[in-house]
Amino acid sequence: MKLRHLILTTMLIAALCVPAFAQGDMSMQVTPETIKIDTTYNGTTVKVEGQAPEGSQIVLRIVGEAGELHMKRKDKALGLLWMNMDSLTFHGVPVLYIVGSSKPLDELGAAGKELKAESMLNTIEIEPDTAARPELIDQLIKLKTKERLYQEEAGEVAMGEVKDGMQSFMATLPIPSRLAPGDYKLASIAVKDGQEVAMTEKDLKVELVSTPLFMAKLAFGHGALYGILATIIALVSGLVIGLIFQSKGEAH
C-alpha cells in the first residue's frame, strides 16, 4: 500500500514538473503599435520583445489583409512577339507577409514549413481555373519578394535569458516603403520539436497622416478639386524645371 502511494505521489510530482504550454503562454510588446505614413516615410522598423516557453524557437509573422490581385500573363504571340495574353485574378492575396525567426524555417520541421509563404498561398484561388497554378504561385511570390512585401527571413530573433520556465526574445523587423494603410496582424509563435506550442497576436495599424492623408481625402472626397490641384502642381513643376534648365544653358 505504501509502495503504491509512493508511486502515485512520484507520478503526480512528475506531471506537475512537465511544462504544459498553450495558447496565451506568451507575452509580446510591439513598438510602435501604429505606423504613420507621412511625406518623409521611406520604410521603418518594428521592435518586438516578449517571453516564450523555455526551449522553444520563435517565429514572428506580420500578415496584411487579403484581397484581389489582377494581372496579365505575358506569352509569345505566334511564337515571335511577347505580348499581354490572358487576364488572371488572384483571390485572397495578403498585401504583406513578413516572417522573422530564431532559426531558419527549414530547420523548424512541420511548423516551419506551414509558416512559409508558399504554404500560406495554398488557400489562394486563381481565375481562370485552367491557369497553371504552381507556376503562377511561384511567380507571385517572386514578384512580392522583389517588392519587399513578402520576406521570409526578414530578421533574426535573438533569444535572451531563461527564468521560471520562460525565455525572453527580441527582434527588429523591417517594414517596406510600399506599405498600404490598413490593419495588420503581428503574431509571435513558439515552436518546439516541429510543433507550435504557444502563440500570441497583436494588431498593427498603418495610417496616413499630414499631407498624404489630406491628398487621400481630397482624391476620394473631392475628385474634381483634386484633379484641378494636380494639374496646377504639374504645370508649376514643369515651369520651374524649364526655368532651371534654361538658366543652366545660358551659363554654358
Question: What does this entry look like structurally?
Answer:
This protein is α+β, with helices and mostly antiparallel strands. The chain has six helices and 13 strands. The strands form three sheets. The protein has a six-stranded mixed sheet with strand order 2-13-12-4-7-9. Strands 1-3-11-10 form a four-stranded antiparallel sheet, with no helix packed on it. It starts with a helix and ends with a helix. 21% of the residues are buried. Keywords: Membrane, Signal, Transmembrane, Transmembrane helix. It holds the Pfam family Alph_Pro_TM. This is Transmembrane protein (Alph_Pro_TM).
Terminal Cα separation, in Å?
108 Å
Helices, by number, come to: 6
The strands making up the biggest β-sheet line up spatially as 2-13-12-4-7-9
Average pLDDT reading: 84
Portion in strands: 35-45%
- Radius of gyration over C-alpha positions, nearest whole angstrom: 26 Å
Number of strands: 13
* Approximate shape: globular
Low-confidence stretches: 5-21
The largest sheet is:
6 strands, mixed
Helix content: 25-40%
Order of helices and strands: HEEEEEEEHHEHEEEEEHH
Structural class: alpha+beta
Structural descriptors:
alpha+beta; six-stranded mixed beta sheet; four-stranded antiparallel beta sheet; 6 helices; 13 strands; globular; CHP02186-rel_TM; signal; membrane
